[in-house]
Design a protein that fits this description.
Blueprint: E1 22-33, E2 36-48, E3 53-57, H1 64-71, E4 79-84, H2 94-97, E5 98-101, H3 113-117, H4 119-123, H5 128-141, H6 157-169, E6 175-179, H7 187-204, E7 207-212, H8 215-221, E8 224-229, E9 233-240, H9 255-268
Parallel strand pairs: 2-9, 3-7, 3-8, 5-6, 6-7
Antiparallel strand pairs: 1-2, 1-4, 8-9
Helix pairs in contact: 5-6, 8-9
The structure holds adenosine-5'-triphosphate (ATP).
Length: 271
């Protein structure tokens, strides 16, 4: 599909034969505070397919984090339907099958990097020897081989965020949810982490949903992009991003990349 092709409907799969891992239909979420209702998500319809890297973009306060929290099982929803797993997939247990990465690495400062990565494995009581081997392999994959015994303060912000990504993968989740994972990093480190993420996605084949405020990042990372409009969140459009593979930083100067960026600006009403 070229960048100028018409929008795909939310139900159009990236891999036509695969069953969606996540089906959201008219999802709605109301927060109740001090007796008052606050509509945070009004109407989100989207399918996410196994192996997708969905970038979720929209203005501040439009409900992106709320949507991730619903997917992570941290919040319920008040309307519409949400199916995760379902037909064609093994049963889905949010406690075991979701990995989370936040804007800050949130490493425990009294644990080594290896022990931080192992934290979800400890909680889920995964066999210690197996988990340790897996953690060391993940640290190698995220470029932290040799840093297992360091303490968090000995690592840069970007390195700590890599450790947080390894931690999100230690229990072999089916779905990895990332909430502005590179928002706290400097521009150059962020570019490097974007490249790293594409590599990690390719190597793990996992399904990722990444919230970002950066439209360029949304296009660069996403195999699909979901654009939400201002609060309460409503789905403006969800479309495939077809850019050459493997993606390199050069793609950012291509006309196709520019067309996708423009399409998102248009959807968000940015002149
Ligand atoms: N626990 C809560 N109780 C009440 N209101 C909440 C709660 N969490 C979020 N909200 C409100 O819901 C709306 C959506 O918040 P959310 O954090 O999902 O937006 P967001 O798109 O992730 O924002 P940002 O991009 O600034 O991080 C906001 O208006 C926020 O104030």
């Amino acid at each position: 599909m070229s960048a100028a092709a018409p929008a795909l409907s939310p139900a159009t799969p990236t891999a036509p034969d695969a069953a969606p891992l996540i089906r959201m239909r008219n999802l709605r979420k109301v927060y109740r505070k001090r007796g008052e209702d606050f509509l945070a998500v009004s109407d989100v319809t989207m399918d996410v397919f196994p192996g997708d890297m969905v970038s979720l973009v929209g203005p501040s306060g439009c409900g992106k984090s709320t949507l991730l929290k619903i997917l992570a099982g941290l919040h319920g929803h008040d309307g519409g339907t949400l199916e995760i797993g379902g037909a064609g997939h093994a049963a889905f247990d949010a406690g075991r099958d979701v990995g989370m990465v936040f804007q800050q690495p949130l490493l425990l400062k009294w644990r080594t990097i290896l022990d931080n990565v192992l934290l979800p494995a400890d909680i889920l009581k995964i066999d210690k020897r197996q988990a340790r081997e897996h953690a060391l392999a993940l640290l190698e994959m995220v470029g932290l081989a040799g840093f297992a015994d360091k303490m968090p303060y000995e690592l840069s912000g970007g390195m700590q965020q890599r450790a947080a990504i390894a931690r999100a993968l230690i229990h072999d989740p089916k779905l990895v949810l990332m909430d502005e994972p590179f928002g706290a990093l400097d521009a150059l480190t962020r570019e490097k982490m974007n490249l790293e993420m594409l590599r990690i996605r390719e190597r793990t084949g996992k399904t990722f949903i990444v919230v970002t405020h950066s439209i360029q990042e949304a296009v660069f990372l996403g195999s699909r992009c979901a654009v939400l409009t201002a609060g309460p969140a409503r789905m403006a459009e969800c479309f495939d991003i077809s850019l050459p593979q493997p993606r390199t930083l050069h793609v950012k100067t291509s006309p196709a990349f520019g067309s996708y960026v423009q399409r998102i600006y248009d959807l968000l009403g940015v002149e």
